[in-house]
């Protein structure tokens, strides 16, 4: 099952060693781990850094899928049985939280709290179903009013064989129980989950730099040159590829470079129905020699942003030199030849790589201004956007950002913003920088804010995997912060190293995964009630001497939201057979419309003394799972030979069950901060 993290960890270690031996990139990743050992997220007794591949960070935002709060926690803090929450819906599927207060010993959870998420109601899913999940689990820290967020950044692959995933070592018991840490306050604690479905994007945006595109030469003749004023004159627009362009010059330019004739190429709008992206424009600019072939030449190349008006050019000639065949009949001729132009297209899934490796192999963390950045390899494609750039060597030295086409993810519109040589204004020197900008915000309400769980990706073609970069911090998009990402996505020395595999056949790919965090508005609250109403049930068993060697059951009785019954075998069970009488409490179904969760049953079991006041007693307390039939009790409440001492009267005995604690589950609209 998904709990078997030990086996999974062994696989990760094996694969890590394999890549260390066969790949120099492992040295880079290991070096990053070593260099970042002194970084920390929070000064507390508990080390929030990696533990067996886990990251632990504190965040302010509530989980978006489920919160379970347990009051009177001291009642059950020593129990070994798991608590199963009510069913909740998240991302279109149904789930339960499974909590081990003292750790799941079968999954390496000794001395820890263990927490899992199990998918439910899978009968309605198609044969061979599979659900890929980005899973985060939480423990509320009431003292700091924050949530300890636990993740390992691997995609959890739920299917018929793996219906449950989580973390056996969620948090150390010594930390969790320590009053100064703040996880248990006023005998109350809270846990949570955040579940996002990873559905790999089925298309990618492919940018290819074309040489000598069609209709790539535009000629502009300026007449009456001597009468032109000190201002910029523009040609008519011309279309190359999906975008309109125009030329610009100022024959009387003043200021720096005044003796020269400036010659610029200016990007305009896009043709109808074209996809607006940053456009690569490489152009030969010529001032024609109208009396010969000694043209003045210049070359310009740049990423032109989406917004019209951006221009790049040069000073092509001294004004005084125009007379030598360039100015004829008071006119000059300027020419632009687009030698390279970016072409944009969408590629379907059939043209993209498909990968079936599973589990991450390498894990590293590096310091970052907004927290601790984690980088790991995963096989699943990003679920929101992929941009692939062909002929990458043409643009690999450019400093201008590439802005992708607009794409929709999680109900909002976005663009990727890529700096292939780093965003120097964000500490991106010697790195690739990548960001996601929210678009079309004019339609959002005043004071809008969108909280995002953001992951960015670089495709490693040699391994057929994606380097996944995140820092676990929730990104708050608003009017003042429309763009978030990582100035230091990946070092240029690593990205450009042919042995690393990020640039293969002169092609690179980047991606993004955007999940919206909408803090859950309700919580499931578990509390315990002493001596609940109608908590005593009496069962008289007649004709005791004629009973057979089998289990006999009482009628059902209701305490709280659940039905119960007593059961026993008159010939004995287990160690007490055949000399002792057993008695057990069985959990049954729930009353109609009740919330079905694990049920705390604390009961006094008694065999009545029918001739006096000396009953035989046994106590039992446990979490009863949701599925009916679980029992707790004793195999020896009395020896058979002692029945005659007032317990067996007129061939009958009397059992009693007194439920002295029961659990209350209810939904509250005021989850912890």
From TrEMBL:
- PROSITE patterns named among the record's database cross-references: MATH (PS50144)
Q: Which CDD domains match?
A: MATH (cd00121)
State the SUPFAM superfamilies in the record: TRAF domain-like
Q: Where is the MATH domain?
A: 63-195, 215-338, 382-514, 534-659
Which Pfam family is one of those matched by this entry? MATH_2
The superkingdom of the source organism is Eukaryota
Protein name, UniProt field: MATH domain-containing protein
Recorded source organism is Brassica napus (Rape)
For this protein's source organism, the top of the classification is: Eukaryota, Viridiplantae, Streptophyta, Embryophyta, Tracheophyta
